[in-house]
Amino acid sequence: xxxxxxxxxxxxxxxxxxxxxxxxxxxxxxxxxxxxxxxxxxxxxxxxxxxxxxxxxxxxxxxxxxxxxxxxxxxxxxxxxxxxxxxxxxxxxxxxxxxxxxxxxxxxxxxxxxxxxxxxxxxxxxxxxxxxxxxxxxxxxxxxxxxxxxxxxxxxxxxxxxxxxxxxxxxxxxxxxxxxxxxxxxxxx
Length: 189
Hints:
Layout: E1 2-7, H1 11-27, E2 32-33, E3 41-48, H2 51-66, E4 71-81, E5 87-96, H3 98-115, E6 130-139, H4 142-148, E7 156-158, E8 160-166, E9 174-181
Antiparallel strand pairs: 1-3, 1-8, 2-6, 4-5, 4-7, 5-6, 8-9
């Protein structure tokens, strides 16, 4: 299975962001825009993970999540990878307790490595973001980053990590494979 671990904003935050990007989406049909059903903040991309490793991953992610307290976040601002003048990815940034988010990402990556699924991006700095759009050929998105740069969404509470399967063929693109609460809080399904 192709897997990643993420934090997903609540529906209200996703709806607010969707409304904020609606005009930009209409003005830039050349970009491949993602929608709220695909929006998440990746903590660790794991890539292709064999079934035995996946089985070892779940209890380790549960323990990693339990070591962290819920914390506040908000979707805010915009940027592009690798740069705004020749972007392949347009993203929305995050505000709030980014230190807690980075610590959670480090714990998740360590849990994945212990399970035998070291993240392929290990050693690179954690750059939290939510991907809004992609393009196959580099695009100048400076106008979009300027327009969306002032975006400040509602605060929400990150209270769980999710293990998500990425499915290249057919909808849904992502399938929830498991979720674990931060600090042992109970979750509603």
